[in-house]
Amino acid sequence: MGMKIIIIGSGVAGLTAGYRLCKSNEIIIFEKDAEIGGMAASYCQECAGKRYFIEKYYHHIFRSDSELLDLIRELGLEDQMLWLKGKNAYFVEGKSYPMNTPIEILRFDPLSFTDLVKLGMLVLRIKLIRDTTSYDNIKAKDWILETAGKSVYENFFAPLLKSKFGDNAENVSAAWLIGRVKIRSDRGKDGEKLGYLRGGFNSLIEALAREITAQGGKILQNKAVEEIVIKDNAVQGVVSDGEFIPCDAVISTVEPRVLDILTKGKLGALHETLRSIHYQGTACALIGLKKRLMEDGNYWLNIKADVPFGAVIEHTNFMPFEDYGEHLLYVTSYFQNENDTLWVKKEEEVLDTYLKGLERMFPDFERTDINWAKIFRRMDTAPVYEQGYLQKVLPFAPGPSGLYLAGMFSSTNYPERSMNGSVKAGLEAANFFMKKDKKCEVCWLD
Ligand SMILES: Cc1cc2nc3c(=O)[nH]c(=O)nc-3n(C[C@H](O)[C@H](O)[C@H](O)COP(=O)(O)OP(=O)(O)OC[C@H]3O[C@@H](n4cnc5c(N)ncnc54)[C@H](O)[C@@H]3O)c2cc1C
Fold it and tell me: 50 falls in which pLDDT band (50, 70, 90)?
């Protein structure tokens, strides 16, 4: 066996790195949560005697997610891959506007014909941008105001930015916006197809974990790392539950502020950057329903209305209802800090405010339609891609020998984080490890 590598975090990045390195090295993954999978973890639910897995937070993938799709193939999960239409709509002032095709977008009443032309021109312009680097220092708001005008900003983009970044909406960079629009505008005349793994992305997480443990690797759940011990600019090991565990290398996938705490200021110049990367939280209700909520078949509904959430996502308007035996709905909002009511209030109170919002938006919705409901929320769900963020993207090898970083903060997840970005980050950190480590280069087989 090669080297002893400790991976902190069992999300997509940590598991992918572990999978790549486990054939030739001893892998131990520490996960602070009870379940593995991080942001892509699933909830196991039973309906009419049948067990199924559903992501705690809504997930789908795009055709451009090449590394993730390669990994799915490599793990033998290709047969589970489905490409399906997910209908989108925008709820404005009590009305739901389909937004799937250029013709439908032209019928979006809240924008005048002139504004729609400006919006179309903006999308065309975005499609022609190859490199977003020079847009990182420009605020999305300023750029939209300058290129498409006030009405397009206020009636189209502002509510979307608000629902995605809350109080930080006005600080988000044009680079993020361009990256996002590029992905979502590639729809063809019949609308885009999104990818999903039948059985849920839990199959991916479980398959990676299986491969790692089959090679003798260990995945320790409910086991947080408290310190990464660095001495003489070299990793010595980690501390968990007060115990020192020596190792040759550490791959950390945790949020930058947590990494700063774990490394106890030993990352020198990076300390300030780690402190300055702001993550936002998500409060997501997952609800099992007896009845379909959005009869018009919408999968994804963005919202401009006085409700405490930014989107309603009906999973079973995307995946077949028969796979679950009940209708599945996400109601979700991002929040910016731990003082937000979505974080401070009890789960049942958050759920109640969400349900009240649903009742306002959908007069036919009744609480007796609910089979079960859960609130999933955590603080570390996405970096906020503020103006100037590019300078904060963390390196895969930050300095001390034996320390590698991979996760939502990596360049592969800029300017928008995704499972694909974290697969790439995990692979990249593994490559850095193998390249820097002569002993391991020899034993690398793939
Ligand atoms: C609401 C929501 C919707 C999303 N939708 C999509 C989508 O549709 N498509 C898509 O591709 N992506 C989507 N994503 C993004 C995707 O889930 C993430 O980009 C990806 O899963 C991140 O993986 P990661 O391994 O980099 O980080 P994480 O999943 O955050 O993994 C880090 C892990 O480290 C653990 N950890 C933290 N501190 C410690 C410690 N001290 N000790 C031990 N363990 C620790 C955490 O518990 C976590 O499990 C979504 C994410 C969210 C939140």
Answer: confident
